[in-house]
Structure formats: C-alpha cells, structure tokens
Amino acid sequence: MAAKYLHYTYDQLNTFCMDAFQKFGFSESEARIISDVLLLSDLYGIESHGMQRLVRYHKGIEKGMIDVHAKPEIVHETPVSAVIDAHDAMGQLVSHQAMELAIAKAKKTGMAIVSVRNSNHFGIAGYYAKMACDQGLVGMAMTNSEAIMVPTYARMAMIGSNSICAVARRYGVPESTIRSWMAEEAGKPDGVFAAARAEAAREIAARAAVGAKAQVSYLQQRVAENQRAAEIRQRLQQRLDEDARARKYTVGALLKSQEEELADATETGMVVYRQPGSYDRELDEAQRKELKAQLERYDAQVMSDRDAANVAAVLLTAAASAAQLAPRDETDSSQSAPAVLVETKSSEAETEVVLDGTV
Questions:
Q1: Which of 3, 131, 244, 318 suits a disulfide with 333, CB 3.0-4.6 Å?
Q2: Which residue from 120, 90, 116 is spatially nearest to 29, judged by alpha carbons?
Q3: Can you tell me the mean pLDDT for 264-276?
Q4: CB contact at 8 A, 81 and 99
C-alpha cells in the first residue's frame, strides 16, 4: 500500500515547535533557535534529527537530563579559544552560543575554536558550521556521542558516531539553488521514497539483528567464563583453608565446617588438626605462594553480584532486541515511524514539508 502523507507548511510546523518548547519552559528566543535547528534539518532531508527529536527532548527534560533553566558558563578563555560548561543545558542553545563566540573571535584573530562540555544532543552539526560559512568563514562543527557503533571485529557497541561537519564557500552556489535541487529530488513520486526507505530499513534491521545476536553470544560467553572462574576460585580458597587449618590448631578450629562441628559435638568422626595421624593438608611455602597468586588472578575475573545482575539485564535486553530485529517486509506503512520530507515548491510558494503517516 502506498504511503500516505499529512501536509504541513514550514510556518505551521515552526509555530508548533515554538509553542512546544515554550511549554517545556524555554523562552521565546530560545524556542526559536531550537526550532530553527530542527526544521532546517528536515528541510535538508536529515529526518533523523528533525522534528521527531521532540519526544526525546521532552523525555530528557522530564528525567532531569536537560536543564531548561541552565546558564552555560565560560570556564576558560583565550583570544583564540574558549571552553563552555553547559551545565546540562539544551544542546542547540549552548552550541549556537559557542559558534557565535567562535565567529567573533575568528573575525579578530583569523581562527578560533570553542569547545562545550556537559551538554546534550545538539541536532545537526551542519547548522553550526553553516553559521560560520554565512559570515564568510570556514565553519567546522563536531561532537561526540554515546556508544552506538560496534568497532571492527568487536561484538558490542563501544564508540560513538562522533559527527564531523565542515562548510566553506568555494564554488559560489547560492543556497536557493541548492534548495531547488533538493525540491527537484523531492518531486519524485512518493512511492519511490517509500520503497527506498523500506529497503534501507530492511538492510539496517538485518545488520542490527546480526549485531544483537553477536552481543548475546558475547554475554553468554562472559557468563560462562565467570562461572568457571568462580568454581576455580572456590577450589583454590578451599585448598588454602585446608592449609591454614593444618598449620595451626586454633585456625583450624575457627575454619571448621558445620558438619565438622557437629561431628566433634557427637564425638563421632572427630576431626583433630595438627595431631599425628590426623588429616594433614599443609602446603609448603612455594605451593602456598602459587595458590595465592592464582586466587588473586581468578578473583579479578569473577564478577561482583552487581555486575552479574547488570550483565543478566543486558543479556535479556539484547536477546529481546535480536528477536525483534529480524528483517521483514512492511506492508503497512502506518506501522513505520513518521518522517518529515521536503516537498516540491515554486520560488513564490511557501516552503512546505510533509509528514509521513496516516490521517
């Protein structure tokens, strides 16, 4: 079934975003900056960083990860550089501030770099690089991210996407021309885009399923290694306890098991330590040293109860993800997440975007 679209103008979506962010607690000027970043992303076809981020930001505010009232602070500054502590501020706001500061410094000194720490998701890096380009400068913007990528030959996500963007005016192509090219591409039939997205989604799902299954396999292997290390550690500790009991009667008495205590109390099978003919398991010094070294080695390999619980939780989550990520054909487009696209327009018409979904 062909995908259906809900049509909204840029102004309608901008008003919606502005109202939403002001409801979240941001001022009008702050809401305008955030909305501009999101909608420019949608206009450029970067749907993953457009309006759909509203939900993530709202959850971040509710959970206290994003501080609506945060006041970013310059904690270090030179004529060509600065470091800003965002204090958990909205990423778009502090990044906009950082690029404005970098532009001002670069116009005075020829170049500048401003870094931000303790911030949040900032949208598309291209927005901030473009700010510098619009001022006749070469603009660069980059960011780290949470661990969402699996390194080569690895089994778990361990590195971030770490986006990098550089913008410079070299060929003198006006932005209006670029937008017209994008509008021409967007003028293709909806079915072409829907088919391309479906194919890309299947490819991503297939690769994600392989990664999730590999993660499950790694975690299962880690659990098995932990169990083996725990068993070896128990045997080593038992042998060292036997040595301690054999070397000294008082230590042996303290280390008696419940069964041995009961045997002594009933005077049957009495266990006597360091007496002729008794159960003597004393080690020599070299053996004792080697066993202690091995015990220390296996102690480091055994997970704590907390770590084991965390691994178990991750294993369950990874197993569920592996089951859900199996690639399959999507015949009902209403089940897919909405996506914002650029629609064809004339130079006089309003900039329009369309929302992929159902009425």
A1: 3
A2: 90
A3: 48
A4: no
Structure tokens at 127: 């927005």
Question: pLDDT at position 259, please?
Answer: 66
Q: Do the Cβ atoms of 302 and 230 come closer than 8 Å?
A: yes
- Torsion, Cα 326 330 333 334, to 10 degrees, reads -60
Give the mean pLDDT of 264-282: 50
Q: Looking at residue 72, what DSSP letter applies?
A: -
What is the overall mean pLDDT for the chain? 77
Distance CA 221, CA 301 (A): 13
For residues 340 and 208, the model is more confident at: 208
CA distances from 68 to 24, 27, 62, 168, 344 (A): 8, 9, 10, 33, 36
pLDDT attached to residue 186: 64
- Is pLDDT of 250 > 60? no
* CA-based torsion, 60, 64, 66, 69: positive or negative: positive
Our measurement of the distance from residue 164's CA atom to the centroid of its chain's CA atoms, rounded to an integer in Å, reads 17
Token pair, residue 265, equals: 């109390």
Report the candidate in 287, 279, 202 with the shortest Cα–Cα distance to residue 246.
279
Count the residues in the chain. Answer: 359
Distance CA(359)–CA(203), nearest Å, equals: 28
Model confidence at 341, in pLDDT bands (50, 70, 90)? very low
> What letter does residue 48 receive in the DSSP assignment?
G
Residue 299 vs residues 45, 223, 293, 320: alpha-carbon distances, Å: 53, 15, 10, 31
- CB-CB neighbours of 314 under 10 Å: 15
Q: Give the whole-angstrom CA distance, residue 198 versus residue 204.
A: 10
Structure confidence at residue 248 as a pLDDT band (50, 70, 90) = low
Give the whole-angstrom CA distance, residue 339 versus residue 194.
Answer: 10
Query: Which H or E run includes 122?
Result: none
